Structures are given as C-alpha cells and as structure tokens.
Amino acid sequence: MIKNWVFSFLIAFLVFYAVDHAIMSMQGLPLNIDMTPAQ
Amino acid sequence: MSLVINKAEVLHRPDSRQQNRPMQFCSGYSLNGRYWILLLGLVVLFFTGGLTWASDAIPDAVDAAEQTIAAKPAPVLGPSDYRQIGSMSSRSFVWVIAQLHLFLAAFVLAVPLFVTVIEWIGVKTGDQRYDDMAHEFMKVSMTAYSLTALFGGTLALALFLLYPTFMAYMMEVFGNQVMVYALLFFLESGVLYIYYYSWYALRYGNRKYLHLSLGVLLNGVGTTLLFVANSWATFMMAPSGVDDGGAVTGNIWEIMRGPLWNPLNLHRFVANIAFGGAVVGAYAGYQLLSARTMAQRAHYDWMGYTSNFIAVLAFLPLPFAGYWLMAEIYAYSQQMGITAMGGILAWLFIVQAVLIGTILLAANYYLWNGMSRCEGSRRYTWLIKYIAITLVGSFLIWVTPHTLILSAKEIAALGGAHHPILGPFGIMPAKNIAVNLMLIGTFLSFQLYRRADKEITVPWAGFGNALMVAIYIIAIANVIFLGVYYGYFTNTVYKVGSSVAQVVSTLIVIISGVTIDSLMFKGARTLPTTWGKISNRGVYALFALPIAFTWLMALMGYVRSSVRTHWHVYTVMKDNSVDNFIPSIGHAANMMTIATISFLLLVLFIFWVASLGETRQKKPIN
C-alpha cells in the first residue's frame, strides 16, 4: 500500500520535472538541475 | 454517468422495404447506401475545391481594369463619409446589431457541431434517446437560424448605410470573396433544412449514415462561413495583403490569412461550442423546471447534464486559445497588446475574470448538485468543500487588480498606486496560477462525478488511485511553483515562458485523468442513477451559465473591436467619425448589457417557439 504511494509520487514528480525542463528548453529558456534559469 | 440502455430500442432497425432488396455486402452497407455516401463525398470535395478555386483563381482571372481599381490606397475619410440615423450614434447602433448577430451566429453554428456528435453516439450505442435529444437540440436552433439571418441582413444594411466609404474599401479588398460568403449561406440554408426535416425520413440503417453525412456537410459549410467572416475582423485588426497605404498587393488568400486569423478561428470555433452548450442547457433547465411528469423531468435532467458537459468540455481549452490569440496580437503589435492588457482596456480583463469565475463556479455547482442522483457519490462529497475553497480563493486572486483607481490623496496614503500586500496578486503570474488551479479543480469535479456511479473492480485499483492523487498534488504544486518562482524571482522572459509549462501541467492532469479512468472503469459495476433527482438550485446554475457566457462574449467582442483604437483598419484607415474615441468602461458595460439582455429575450422567444410546435389545442366540445 505504502509502496503504491511512494512509487506514484516518484513517477509524478519525475514526469513534471522532465516536462518543465522540456517545455522551458523548447522556448530557448534552459534550466539548471535545481530549476534555476541557466541564462 | 452511464444511462440505463434499453437494448430493445436500437437505431439499426431494418426497414421492411430494405428486406426485399438484394443481399447486402458483408460490411452491412447496401450498394445504394454506398452510392449515396460516395455521392455526398463527391459533393463535399466539389464544394471544397470550388471554394479553393473561388478564393484563389478568381482574383487571378480579374481583368486589368479591376486590378487597377484594387491597387488604390485606402481612402482618407472625412465627415461626409459617415452617416447617422437622426441623433443616434452610428457606432452604438452597429455595435448592438453586430453583437446580436454574433450571439445568434455562434449558437446556430455550434449546435449542429455537437448535434452530429450526439447523433453519432446514438448510432454507436444503439440508444434512441441520444437521437431524440440531438433532434430536440436542432429544433431549438432552427428558430435561431432565421433570427441570425435577420440580424445579419440588418447589420449589412446598417454598415453600408452608415459607413459607405469604409464598406466600399472593404469590398475592394475582399472582392469576390463576399459573394462566396453569400453562396455559402445558400448552401448552409439548404443543407440545414434538409438535415432537420429529413431526420425521421433518414432515421435507420444506411439512411442514417446519409443523414450523418449531411450533418458533417452542414458543419463544414458552417465552419467555412465562420472562417470567412473572421477574416474581415482580423483584417481590420492586423491587415495583410495590403501595403502601408492600404493598396491591395496580395491575392485573397494573403488578405485572409493574416497573423490573427487562425488564432481567432480556433478561439471562436471552440468558444461557439461552449456557448451553444450553455444555451441549450438553459433550454433543458427551463423544460425541467416546467416538467409535469417524472419521465419528462428525467429526460430534461439528462439533457441538462449533457449540455453542461459540452459547455465545460469546450470551455476548458478556451483560456489557452485566448492566450494564443493575445500572444499573436503582442507579436504583431506590442502597442496593440499593451493597449489590450496593460493599458486602457486592462480593467476589462478584471471583468473577464469575474465572468469566467462565475462560469466555473456555476458549472461546478451544477456538477456537485448532480451528484445527488447517485448514492455512490457519498464517497466523494467530502472533497467538494476543498474544491470550492480552491475555486473561490483562485477567483478572488484573479479579480484582484494591479493598478487601482485612486485620487492623489489616496495614493499618498497608500504609498503608491499599488496595494502593498494585494498588489502582487494583480499581475499575470498570480492570474496564471489561479486560472490553472480553477481548471484543475473543475476537472476534478468532473472526474468525481464520473466515478460516483461506478465501483471499480480492476486488481490494480490501489495503484491507479494513488497515481491519480499523486498527479493532482504534484501538478498543483508545480503550477504554484512555476508561477511564484519564475513570476516574481526571475526575469520577464522566464516569467512568460513558465506560463506554457503551467498550461501543460493542467493538460497532463486532464489527459491522464481521462486515460487512467478509462482503464480503471473496465469491468466496473454500475450503481443505479436516478435522473431527475437534482435540486432546483442546481438547475438555476444552468441559467447562470448562458448569461455569463453571453456577457463574456459581448465583453471580449468589445475588447477585440476597441483594441484598434482610432483605426477602422489598423495603421491603414483612420477612424475620423464623431465616435472616434474609446468610451468609458461604464458606457461600454451598459452597451454590452443591452446586447446581452436583448439576446436573452430573443432566447426566451426561441425556446417558446420551439415548444409552441408541440402544443396542441384541444378541440372544443360543441
């Protein structure tokens, strides 16, 4: 049961983290690993 | 929520005459059915090809004399180029007539779009109630069609009478395209009348597919009409195919396909569907409240739910379509963009926030009330208060203005033109957070409603539910993080760019919600639903929706028109009329309200006429 929740939050976090990086990069606005602007 | 389907009533009832026909092909289509569908397909192709030819080939075939006329620059207008009816402001007259025409046109273009889909669902499920509901929606829109034409004709006459020189220039620019528009009306009228009046003649078997094809053709013609008319509005805002003086330099395709054409096409196409759904929802609500039997009540309750579903489903992507339109306006002209959202018209977007908040609150309230139809909804009702708090809180942030209307003394007392604490809520990052949270909250209401009548039986339900919860929580956190961090702590470019990531987060919630639920509902047990079991308060929300939608359309139409400021055609033809000024917000609000109330009275007339056809007077006993 707890495994389900941990796994789910991990998947969701990784998906949104990747989406944020992808969307910002596509607009020419790269991010660092800690989400701060790279420019 | 699923309906209890009466399998005995299916749409593919064999026609007794067809049973004597030659053997059908294994696909189930008879040769005659295929012939009609092929014929209709050829008609559609011919029509599409004709339109392309008309739009492209005719200007190429224009003789040299006409080309010389079309190459003249836009005239400079003087007082003699404007007319007035008595002392009535020409702008005010055209404003109200044009707005009423747009309201009615949006309605009659939208209804066939979702009627064809509902009719198709009726074919796929075999449930005749979908077919009956689709027919009833069309009945409502038939009266509206005549009114649309009346106001369109009046608008055209008013424009030619009151702005003859401006209209002469527009006719020079668009040329034969306006006759294509007229021809499309003939086609629209013909197909519409055949589509409606052949409903029962083409009801079953292959004839039903012919009827559906007519629906598709009707929507194709209607959408083309919309796109053609949109080109006139977008030309006035962002002229293309002409030089700086207004002389035509390109062909009709270059004139039509300006930078704002497709954003406006998308926005109006989707918004029409949302608006049409809201208006027929009011019809359903009106019929439900006046229903005399439980069967009638159940039927109109279901119709109201379907209408609300259509309205909200189309409404969810609208902010993104509007955002694209505004982004293109900024890209075309920074000045125009700033006028719209950062300058003199900025307060109208606060009013827009009030109306969209009203729409979302009303739509959610209707869904929450509708949960009382099913006992299984009790599992989820504890979440409603949190959705309500999110909606109201986001609504309050969205309506918070940035620049306040203050006297010099008040500014001194406040320490500036912006409130020290609430000021940060007045800029776009806060609004973007608010609107995305409202859309996520609305989708959650939908998802709970869909789950209310189901008991999920898949073995991986625990993981599926945990994943759904995680997606919601992380998406909400992401939306807030993107808005706060990039909105207030980084530069402008990252601030604007982060809004796209917020939109995508919301879309991920919606798409994953629909996908996960579809997979989890396989083999689910359906709990009983009692259609008609909804409080009257919930039904009143179906009246609030079209009122807010109508007023919102009037507001945004006014913004689109006045963003041109003192130009008839932006940077090409100046407005030199006596109405060459942006009116006060109060005056504009009064004009919009007059148009809205007039339209709502027309809607009542349309509903009355729609039900008048079913009224039968009892024969007097002599």
Describe the model.
The complex is a heterodimer of chains A (39) and B (622). Chain A has 39 residues and is mostly helical. Helices cover 64% and strands 0% of the residues of chain A. Chain A contains one helix and no strands. Chain A has one helix at residues 2-26. The N and C termini of chain A lie far apart (43 Å). The model of chain A has no long low-confidence stretch (mean pLDDT 94). By secondary structure, chain B is an all-alpha fold. Chain B has two domains: 92-356 and 556-611, no CATH class; 375-528. Helices cover 70% and strands 1% of the residues of chain B. Chain B has 20 helices and four strands. A two-stranded antiparallel sheet of chain B has the order 1-2. Chain B has a two-stranded antiparallel ribbon with strand order 3-4. In chain B, α11 crosses α12 (334-341) and α19 (536-562) packs across α20 (585-612). Chain B is globular and about 70 Å long. Residues 1-32, 53-59 and 61-70 of chain B have low confidence and may be disordered. Chain A binds chain B through residues 1, 4-5, 7-9, 11-13, 15-16, 19-20, 23-24, 27, 29, 35-37, and chain B through 462-463, 466-467, 469-471, 473-475, 478, 481-482, 485-486, 490-491, 493-494, 497-498, 500-501, 504-505, 508.
